[in-house]
């Protein structure tokens, strides 16, 4: 698949957030302000960068998955949120693009495997 990596990241961001929100609700958290605070521990650019680099160090990803990550991470562009440095932003974009790619490939089981690895289940 040769989709635009920023479009993949756009989709992956929302898919990943749904998984994390469901996980937190399943943990019994019901107050929205607490849900939001806890979700940030998983969905912020800094957190996504941290999880991605940990999984990369463990050689967790396939070559195909790494290609998606690298394509997104190396995408030309210097825009990023004010509260995040460019390197962190690019890694989080790579993570989100991978989730979007796996979703479009109907590889939900691999998304769930990644999520389980992140949340420690």
Polypeptide structure, described:
The protein is 74% helix and 0% strand. The chain has six helices and no strands. It is globular, with a radius of gyration of 14 Å. The N and C termini lie far apart (30 Å). 29% of the residues are buried.
Strand content: under 5%
Q: Could you describe the largest sheet, including whether it forms a barrel?
A: none
Helix content: over 70%
Terminal-residue CA separation: 30 Å
Helix count equals 6
What is the radius of gyration computed over CA atoms, rounded to a whole number of angstroms? Answer: 14 Å
The ordered H/E elements are HHHHHH
The structure class reads mainly alpha
Please provide the count of β strands: 0
Net shape:
globular
- Low-confidence spans: none
The mean pLDDT is 93
In terms of topology, how is this protein built?
Blueprint: H1 5-26, H2 32-43, H3 45-57, H4 63-73, H5 86-104, H6 108-119
Helix pairs in contact: 1-2, 1-5, 2-3, 3-5, 4-5
Task: Give the gist of this structure.
With 121 residues, the protein is mainly alpha-helical.
Give descriptors for this structure.
mainly alpha, 121 residues
